[in-house]
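Hi Prof. W.,

I finally got the Pilus assembly protein PilX prediction working! I wasn't sure whether to trim anything, so I left the full sequence exactly as given:
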Amino acid sequence: MKPAARAPRTPRAPAARGMVLILALLALVGLALSAVVLVRAVDAGGHIVGNLGFRQQATSAADPMAEEALAWLVATQAGDLGALQTSQPAAGYYASSLDDLDPTGSRPGALARVDWDGDDCGGAPVTCLPARAATPVGPHTGQWVITRLCRIEGEPQPSSTQTCASAVGNLEAEVCKGRLDYETLGSAGRDQGGMVRGCGLAPLSPYYRIIVRSVGGRGTVSYTETIVSLS
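And this is what came out:
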């Protein structure tokens, strides 16, 4: 019995083999690019999470600085009731609201800035205000600036040139014969010092704005603002 005859194999054309090789190379290139994109996406996500973590830590470090600033206000007022009526730049305290202040230094225009880095605000042609000296807070450093929310320095009592944001606005506490009343008082019934005749007026307690700048890991900078009243 004779074995079945096999059909002769047709040799594959060189062009077909070359096309398969090209397709394989293209597939490899596509896989490599996908891997690079994936690695970069994971790396960028890690950086974002890390930066958010550093920023949160820097913001948390601002809390004790705000408490320190509040303690400074209380101690300064306890030592001298009129001490907070004038600015104390060396302590980072200003007795007016500084409405044109740009604490972050990011707004365009000729605004007042805070000299956080001690470099004269980088030489910018603006009013440069000193801040409180940097204080270590764990691995971070913090500084603060306090502004009294009054139009100008001096007595906080309302006048033609002075207005202050206070806990009771235009209301003043009148203490008469052991009774505490709150009422809007005009100029009638006052003496030259602004006191109601026959009664004691509790002085207005203006609000204070505490701006804290904290610097953490990787140069992360955080700003917080706290409004407080000493009343």
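The first strand starts at residue 93 and ends at 94. Does that look reasonable to you?

Thanks,
D.
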